[in-house]
Design goal:
Elements (H helix, E strand, L loop, with lengths): L1 E7 L7 H13 L2 E6 L12 H13 L5 H18 L5 H14 L5 H5 L1 H14 L2 E2 L16 H11 L6 E4 L2 E3 L5 E3 L5 H11 L4 E6 L20 E3 H9 L9 H8 L2 E6 L8 E4 L4 H4 L3 E16 L8 H12 L4 E6 L3 E6 L6 H17 L8 E15 L4 H13 L3 E5 L7 E6 L3 H12 L1
Parallel strand pairs: 1-2, 1-7, 2-4, 3-4, 7-9, 8-10
Antiparallel strand pairs: 5-6, 9-10, 11-13, 11-14, 12-13, 14-16, 15-16
Helix pairs in contact: 2-3, 3-6, 8-10, 12-13
The protein binds aspartic acid.
């Protein structure tokens, strides 16, 4: 028996054929805890069963016929159950879900959309000869909607018997008022991390349909390589600019116990995938460029004034006005006489600019500054690219600098004191092209 938590995503469980592959992986080393998603898409034109349930609820709320989606949901499970040759009374379960969809109470929404995971775990536990452990019996949310790790751990330890293996439905737990509560979409990743934390295991295997964390977004860079090892921090920087293989909040739970996450492919299980390691392993990985990520549609708002050190209140003004308008400062770069705000909007509009100028003038007056001589310049349609590094050496720095500056449309570069990643700004238009060129030069 292997002390490991493994989680299988929707595509790994989309049909019986895939579930057989999952079984081989699990039983190859009798993995102790298995967390499952709801069956996902079998091909591009298919639908995830969680989406079926969401559609049922939304249609029912509009008093519309939801039978088409409910039938898809039922038929898929009936087929899997029959092929797996397990005995479960699906009819009663379907009836209960149907009744709740029909009465479409908002407080039942999370219960309804979590039933894909529930049924998936029920069937797979029987198929594997593992015990079924319902997540609602040990993942508890507190009043603020956070997982209460202390009470969850007490409940988990009480439920678990030595030498038993378990299948657990992902994506949900129990709210403080005893209702099923789901995480945000993709939340089974979090269930896996939580189970690893509660069981004091240091290894969490997360199986998807890709070979691991890729060096760059595969929809832009074809045949991007796999990152064999990266730290939590490297992953955070990659996901910050759009790389999305895992649920963003996973790190929160992994960090608590320095859990090692292994991202693997169900359909290519011989491949070792990517290892996401606690930050203390930074030196083991050494000086290396880890990956590239990037996003389009930012703007750079430059505030310029002589002797800017006196005027740091401008940061608060920008932050306040931008927030009031639903925008966010993504990064700040400052120099002797200017501060650059990188804002998550490609076309920064005049109305917001006027609001900022008005508030700045008020603030100057409040601070008794008579010289209100400042300029604001806007550069729209900017993309931000992160070159994620584990740590530097001269050779790497040289490689990065020569690669980024040679690109036309280059706008700016930033790197903080302790972070090993470099952020680069370019004009939007050539984003895909630039990413491809950087990939070729750097990897
Ligand atoms: N089935 C849920 C979703 O589609 C949760 C998950 O798969 O992790 O978001």
């Amino acid at each position: 028996m292997e002390d490991v938590v493994c989680k299988f995503g929707g595509s790994s469980l989309a049909n019986f054929e895939n579930i057989q592959k999952v079984k081989d992986i699990i039983l190859s080393s009798k993995k102790r805890f298995v967390v499952v998603s709801a069956p996902g898409k079998q091909d591009k034109n298919d639908i995830k069963l969680t989406d079926c349930l969401i559609n049922c609820f939304n249609l029912s709320k509009l008093d519309k016929d939801f039978s088409k989606f409910f039938d898809i949901f039922k038929d898929r499970f009936v087929k899997i159950k029959q092929q797996a040759k397990v005995r479960i009374n699906l009819k009663t379960i379907f009836l209960e879900i149907y009744k709740r969809i029909l009465s479409h109470n908002d407080f039942d929404y999370d219960y309804i959309i979590s039933r894909g995971e529930y049924l998936s775990a029920l069937i797979i536990s029987k198929y594997l000869g593992y015990r079924f452990l319902d997540a609602k019996d040990f993942i508890f949310f507190d009043k603020s909607g956070e997982v209460d790790l202390i009470s969850s751990k007490i409940a988990f330890k009480k439920l678990i018997k030595k030498d038993e293996c378990y299948v657990i439905p992902g994506f949900y737990g129990l709210s403080f008022n005893n209702r099923i509560k789901t995480f945000s979409r993709g939340g089974s990743d979090l269930t896996g991390a939580i189970v690893a934390l509660l069981s004091d295991f240091i290894k969490y295997e997360n199986y998807t349909d890709v070979d691991g964390f890729l060096v760059a977004n595969p929809s832009i860079v074809k045949n991007a390589k796999i990152i064999k090892e990266l730290t939590y921090k490297n992953m955070r920087t990659l996901t910050y600019l759009g790389a999305n293989v895992l649920h963003q909040d996973c790190l929160k739970f992994l960090k608590e116990n320095d859990i090692i996450l292994n991202l693997r492919n169900t359909f290519n299980s011989k491949n070792c995938g990517s290892l996401i390691l606690p930050d203390k392993f930074k030196d083991k990985i050494g000086a290396k460029i880890i990956g590239l990520s990037g996003k389009k549609d930012y703007s750079v708002v430059e505030f310029r004034s002589y002797d800017i050190q006196k005027y740091f209140f401008v940061i608060n003004v920008f932050d306040r006005v931008l927030r009031q308008n639903g925008l966010r400062i993504e990064q700040i770069i400052s120099s002797i006489d200017c501060i650059n705000f990188i804002v998550d909007k490609s076309d920064f509009d005049e109305i917001i600019l006027t609001k900022i100028e008005d508030e700045l003038i008020c603030e100057y007056e409040n601070n008794h500054i008579s010289n209100k001589d400042f300029q604001i310049k806007i550069t729209n349609n900017v993309c931000l690219i992160a070159i994620v590094c584990n740590s530097f050496n001269l050779e790497i720095l040289n490689k990065i600098f020569t690669s980024i500056i040679k690109e036309k449309d280059f706008l700016f570069i930033s790197k903080s004191l302790t972070e090993s990643s470099v952020f680069v700004g370019y004009k939007n238009d050539n984003f895909e092209n630039i990413l491809n060129k950087l990939y070729k030069k750097l990897f």
